[in-house]
Design a protein that fits this description.
Shape: elongated
Number of helices: 19
Order of helices and strands: HHHHHHHEHHHEHEEEHHHHHHHH
Strand order of the largest sheet: 3-4-5
Structural class: mainly alpha
Helix content: 40-55%
Distance between the termini: 124 Å
Largest sheet: 3 strands, antiparallel
Strand content: 5-15%
Number of strands: 5
């Protein structure tokens, strides 16, 4: 409203001349205030009830238990191995995986803070895209099998593959019907088997790293994603919020196989192996860490760092002692390390010699004498050349004795 500058003010009586009014105005004023308050309460309640439902997707700090860690998060492998099971359960799976890669070939320049920040930024982008396309699920839930979880995972996979160019390293692809790539090649570069390769190296990874990245980002979005293993393969699983379905993380697009698929692919396994190794079940944090330790040990072995690999395989076995595979990998690591020293090689030869069974028969007398002589040579520190020559002679004598009989 415009003010009229030339309008004269109305004449007012001096305050002392104003006659007092009756007390009715106080009652009316009080009733007006009460009415305004009641209207305000009604409006607030109405708005709250009719407000649109907010998206449940939230970027969360990474934790798997109700309690946060009581001490600063680990930054080194040594700090990580000192955590109790409860402390480990409170850690970000991405941090645990990245720490397991530190010091390995292919992890040069990896910075924990930078990588973790990048993961959170990726999760935020996925959240925005998921909410932006929410209308698709609302319009036709059947397109996503009436599953909010599958809609969200479909969006996460799509954004990771299209926007962040996440893909399997083509050099590591295994063709069905062919022999597996030797461990010395597959595990040689940590960027292929830990998540920093997916974050830093053009989004390339393998089944050792891609499911871990899915879990790390999914958990940041509040999704109940767990890791699952089958023989020679890792995948992920949505396991909560009233739904359970598998997520094949190495395929193009969102693919979900049932458990029966993984009983035969990529390798079949026995019932004993399934129980011993925990195949096809959602892993707990100790079991996840055990797998990361296995992968770390395999990378160290592939790079001929046998003594360091023993530390990794020991931790893997400590975290998941029921696994026969963990025990066998630790035993093999000790044998490989022993073979790197003269004393270790001597012990291995003596063990192998004692395992040779020679029949108590006259035709084997020469072989018995050679075995005794070999045992003395190994114990006295004879040269490796002389021992190898004597071992060849023993094998020849055994072959000849069998033919004579």
């Amino acid at each position: 409203m415009k003010r009229t500058p030339h309008t004269k003010p109305r004449n007012r009586k001096p305050r002392s001349e104003v006659k007092p009014k009756s007390g009715a105005w106080k009652i009316r004023a009080l009733l007006s205030i009460v009415a305004v308050l009641l209207i305000g309460v009604f409006i607030a309640v109405f708005v709250t009830k009719t407000a649109p439902e907010q998206s449940p997707i939230q970027i969360t700090s990474q934790k798997q238990t109700a309690k946060s860690p009581q001490k600063p998060p680990p930054n080194t492998w040594e700090e990580l191995t000192k955590l109790s099971s409860n402390e480990l359960a409170a850690q970000d799976i991405a941090r645990v995986n990245l720490i397991c890669a530190l010091g390995l070939p292919g992890s040069e320049g990896v910075d924990l803070k930078t990588n973790l920040t990048t993961l959170s930024q990726m999760a935020e982008h996925i959240q925005r895209e998921t909410e932006r396309h929410q209308y698709r699920f609302d319009k036709d839930p059947a397109e996503f099998e009436n599953s909010k979880g599958k809609y969200r995972i479909m969006m996460m996979v799509t954004v990771l593959q299209q926007d962040f160019r996440l893909h399997y390293n083509t050099e590591r692809i295994w063709q069905e019907g062919t022999e597996n790539e030797p461990n010395e090649v597959f595990f040689a570069n940590s960027a292929d088997i830990f998540i920093h390769g997916l974050i830093k190296h053009a989004g390339m990874g393998t089944c050792s790293s891609m499911p871990v990245l899915f879990a790390a980002i999914g958990r940041r979005l509040g999704y109940p994603i767990r890791l699952v293993k089958t023989k020679a393969h890792l995948y992920a699983r949505w396991d909560g919020d009233g739904e359970t379905f598998n997520i094949e993380c190495t395929s193009l697009g969102f693919v979900s196989h049932n458990d029966e698929h993984y009983r035969a692919w990529p390798m079949p396994f026995s019932t004993v192996e399934e129980q011993s190794e925990g195949y096809l079940k959602s892993m707990n944090p100790d079991e996840e860490f055990s797998v990361f330790c296995q992968i770390r040990g395999a990378c160290l072995q592939a790079n001929q760092k046998h003594q360091e690999s023993i530390t990794a395989f020991t931790e893997a076995y400590r975290r998941f002692p029921q696994s026969r595979g963990n025990l066998h990998m630790l035993q093999r690591a000790n044998r490989l390390y022993a073979a790197t020293t003269p004393e270790g090689r001597a012990n291995l030869r003596l063990t192998a010699l004692n395992q040779i069974s020679i029949p108590n028969h006259p035709s084997y007398s020469a072989a018995q004498s050679t075995k005794t002589r070999l045992s003395l040579m190994i114990g006295s520190g004879a040269s490796e050349f002389e021992i190898e020559a004597e071992m060849a002679a023993l094998n020849a004598e055994l072959y000849s004795a069998r033919n004579r009989r």
